[in-house]
Q: What sequence folds into this?
């Protein structure tokens, strides 16, 4: 009987410690105050990232990019958008620049730093010993309470990586290490390019994660092709098919 009571008390204590993740809103400032990024991350995994004209939404486990053309707003899954852009680039005759010779890079933990009252680890990407190359630094929080914010910001990282691969035909060693670093948790600071201003815990209106009309890949390609044709008929300056992407900010290279 005593054993049963002890087991019951232990189960209750574990349940009390294992509360569901909270909704979190993180507000960032870009370097030199050129813009802001707002991340709304719900405890259930849904998320919204607002970065200038760019809006990314995760809903029910799927990641979407919200686009705008002459007909209004619509959305497409990240995978469909990246695949469609690749197809349109190939059809237009575009050829990737190709990967140049590059150094190998290390990712190391350096120290700790607190940003906006949130402690984190300082991570550094640098060329392996003896090799010239760029250096990047970020402060990352591994606190599980902020994990969904980190996953939301990772949508930007993935989109930026996909676009870089389309332009150069692959992902460089430096980009791979930087992506690995940014995926370690919630970014508190990325060099001098991005810094957390404020963290707010509290319920987020589910309407924040609502999507405009979602197009499948075929409909997306048709709409983007029509928008491109309309832009070509109109002449310069061409109207953008989608908002200018704002992937994880890239700071100015630092000398090793």
A:
């Amino acid at each position: 009987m005593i054993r049963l009571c002890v087991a019951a008390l232990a189960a209750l204590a574990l349940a009390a410690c294992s509360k569901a993740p909270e909704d979190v809103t993180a507000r960032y400032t870009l370097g030199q105050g050129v813009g802001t990024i707002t991340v709304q991350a719900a405890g259930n995994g849904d998320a919204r990232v607002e970065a200038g004209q760019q809006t990314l939404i995760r809903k029910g486990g799927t990641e979407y990019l919200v686009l705008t053309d002459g007909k209004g707003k619509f959305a497409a899954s990240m995978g469909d958008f990246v695949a469609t852009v690749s197809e349109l680039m190939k059809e237009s005759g575009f050829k990737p620049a190709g990967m140049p010779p590059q150094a190998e890079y290390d990712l190391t933990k350096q120290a700790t730093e607190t940003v906006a009252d949130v402690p984190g680890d300082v991570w550094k990407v640098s060329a392996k010993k003896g090799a010239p190359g760029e250096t990047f630094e970020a402060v990352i929080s591994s606190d599980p309470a902020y994990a969904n914010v980190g996953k939301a910001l990772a949508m930007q990282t993935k989109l930026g990586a996909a676009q870089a691969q389309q332009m150069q035909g692959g992902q460089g060693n430096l980009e791979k290490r930087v992506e690995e670093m940014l995926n370690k948790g919630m970014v508190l600071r990325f060099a001098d390019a991005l810094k957390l201003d404020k963290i707010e815990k509290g319920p987020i209106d589910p309407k924040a994660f609502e999507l405009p009309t979602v197009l499948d890949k075929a409909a997306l390609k048709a709409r983007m092709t029509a928008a491109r044709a309309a832009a070509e008929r109109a002449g310069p300056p061409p109207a953008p098919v989608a908002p200018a992407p704002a992937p994880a900010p890239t700071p100015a290279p630092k000398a090793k």
Remarks:
- The CA atoms of residues 51 and 246 lie 6 Å apart.
- DSSP finds five helices and eleven strands in the chain.
- The longest helix spans residues 147-168.
